[in-house]
Amino acid sequence: MTDKIAYTRHDDVAVLRIQNPPVNALSQAVRQGLWDAMDRAEADEGVRAVLIVGEGRAFIAGADITEFGKPPMEPNLPALCTRIEASPLLVVASMHGVSLGGGLEIALGAHYRIAQPSARIGLPEVHLGLIPGAGGTQRLPRLAGVEKSLDMITSGRQVKAAEALDMGVVDRVAEGDPEAVGLSYVSELLAEGATRRPVSELPAAPAIDWDATYNAVLQKGRGQISPATAVRAVQAASELSFAEGMAKERDLFMELMGTDQRQGMIHAFFSERAVGNLPELKGVTPRDLKAIGVIGGGTMGAGIATAALLSGFDVVLIEMTVDAAEAAHGRISGNLSGALKRGKISQEKFDTLTQKALTVSTDYDSLKDVDLVVEAVFENMDVKKEVFGKLDAVCKAGCILASNTSYLDVDEIAAATSRPADVIGLHFFSPAHIMKLLEVVVAEQTAPDVVATGFALGKALGKISVRAGVCDGFIGNRILATYRTAADHMVLDGASPYQIDKALVDFGFAMGPFAVADLAGLDIGWMTRKRKAPDRHPAERVPTYIDRLCEEGHFGQKTGEGYYLYEAGKRAGVPNPKISELVAAEQAELGITPRPFTDEEIVRRYMCAMVNEAAKVVGEGIARRPLDVDMTLLFGYGFPRYWGGPMKWADIVGLDTVLADIEAYASEDAWFWQPAPLLKKLVADGRTFDDLNKDAAK
To answer: 3-hydroxyacyl-CoA dehydrogenase NAD binding domain spans which residues (predicted)?
Structure first.
């Protein structure tokens, strides 16, 4: 037996305590230890039952991620679950903290389950492009029925103890030390003469319309295949014997193990954990943060204030006028009332946040005690410099001055103050209290502890924080401008915006680029085009058909008309017939004969433009690693998680083929399709973007 399992005996009960901190991951040593401890309990004279408990924070949080991608080691998890279930002794799992993935499958192998009220269970394998592979899809439906099991497995969501009890997955919920309540429950079962109750021997769940369910889950997953594959595994639990169902689950699991989607989702899983781990911040202590200032109470400022309040900060928000300040307070209260309705906060907490923790003022002097202030005003350099001049005058020494700019030069903003070392970019994404991405933009003179504080704030707010250097648009918006331009070029050359949107949604994006433009506001792109016009290279193709719409005051969803027309109260729009007329007029003016595009060509051009610009961003050091680009696109721009991000997509399809396509497109437009030097070098050296991620981790 390994030291990962402590074996103790309490009268006629053997207690198997899992000791693999911090969360009792199911490493090979834990699996072997459980197997050996079961053997010992069965050989231990007088033992009538086994209680399995976890030490520390959790029962078992799932697989050991350090074993991902390595050859499997015996005993494998399906065999261990079967071994526990087959024991002639009565086996009980006492669950606390989380029991996820293989952890829940171990518990399902027990004959009875007791859980703490705060315990949570789940089968999150779909988030790794997989399905449960150790009987989860076969045992859970026998306890909870098909519908509830499918909801849990296809969503990967965590279920609280009370719901798990209602579902029949746990048999009792009791507060107390997991071992003590477990032993009490085992004693009760033995006193009652309770018999073994292997889940595998329970009746199979009744059938449903499997094909309709499969199609619905596939559609909901926007092309992700693991949730839909889980439907087929649960179907096997309903239609086949338990042993045949287990074999079918294993076949489907192994099938998914070999897919591109699994590669992409594993990359996303590890990158999400690596993105905030920066060598430059090792040993750097962040500054203390208790009170946050926000300048501007529009949608963005109110969202930032909401996120800060929900994370326990006091907030001082500055607006220009009393009316604007009242409106900002209303926006924040509206955001918080959403959290109240969803049960995220209590009424008492809501009252505290809106009446005590939040101060709304028109006086910059109200900011004199804040530790960090985020400017979220109009995207205009002169306006921002004026704000930073005022902040410089009123904020205390050591207060961090942050700009929420989307595009503008943070070095130039910092120069408007006497303390450029305290200035940083914190680019939130709207709505800021919901969107997970935060770009931490490091200017030339930003102090290391200011960078560390930016990341500490991101963590406190529950954000995925990505380090970005200074350039027009930083990481995300710079790349967006390029792939969006590729889409505009395709419109001029003959593809409709609606075909492009559909092709990219089918690829897995949450929305197409033209629907996104309507949502964000067409005036943003219009302003950017006007701002860049004086320095534009003569060879650059810039479609202007949409500017005609902006000149008429149509900016997308907020005005009811953009690429799509929007009815009041409806989020989805219908194609705007004016667009085809505006495009045709520009085509005629430029002498372009439109040609048809296939959906495949649309996706390929869009993705090649994205990867090429991203390679330039990494090559220039704006993003330190390819994974920084991947996380930016995943969490800020609706990129499909199952591809892992654009850099991972490029690795999967082959950098050589991506470069070859870019070079072919360059024959039509050499200015736009200039291959990134980094991409050319990687192809020449036979290396991948992921190799660069590994280099950075050394």
So the answer is: 292-468
Alpha-carbon span 359 to 368, nearest angstrom: 13
Q: What pairing do the DSSP bridges indicate for beta strands 49-54 and 5-10? A: unpaired
Q: Which of 85, 125, 179, 249 is catalytic?
A: 125
Tokens of 524: 């943003």
Phi and psi at residue 344, to the nearest 5°: -75, -30
Structure tokens that stand for 459 in this block: 């963590």
Distance CA 41, CA 653 (A): 51
The answer to whether 317 touches 373, Cβ cutoff 8 Å, is: no
Distance of CA 217 to the CA centre of its chain: 20
Q: What is the pLDDT of residue 378?
A: 86
Where do the structural domains in the chain lie, given as residue ranges? 5-258, 289-468, 476-697
CATH annotation of 289-468: 3.40.50.720
CATH code for the part of the protein at 476-697: 1.10.1040.50
As a whole number of Å, the CA-based R_g of the chain is: 28
Active site residue 255: no
3-state secondary structure of 53: strand
Of 12, 113, 11, 13, the closest CA to residue 59 belongs to 113
pLDDT: which is higher, 219 or 38: 38
**Cβ 293 vs Cβ 267: under 8 Å:** no
Give the pLDDT confidence score for residue 255 in this predicted structure: 95
Neighbours of 460 (CB within 10 A): 16
What one-letter code names the amino acid at 21?
P
**Local structure of residue 395 (DSSP, 8 states):** S
pLDDT of residue 2: 64
83 backbone φψ class: left, alpha, beta (φ>0; ψ -120 to 50): alpha
Give the CATH architecture of domain 5-258.
Alpha-Beta Complex (3.90)
Distance CA 581, CA 368 (A): 55
Which structure tokens are listed for 363?
């006086």
C-alpha 251/C-alpha 40 separation (Å) is 32
Comparing CA positions, the residue from 60, 122, 63 lying closest to residue 97 is 60
pLDDT score of 295: 96
CA separation for the pair 514, 602 (Å, rounded): 14
pLDDT at 567: 86
What are the residues facing 425 on neighbouring strands? 403, 441
The pLDDT value recorded for residue 345 is: 87
Which residues neighbour 43 within 8 Å (Cβ) at sequence distance 6 or greater? none
Active site residue 105: yes
Q: Which of 105, 319, 375, 439 is catalytic?
A: 105
275 contacts 440 by C-beta, under 8 angstroms: no
Average pLDDT score over residue span 8-12: 95
3-state SS, residue 34: helix
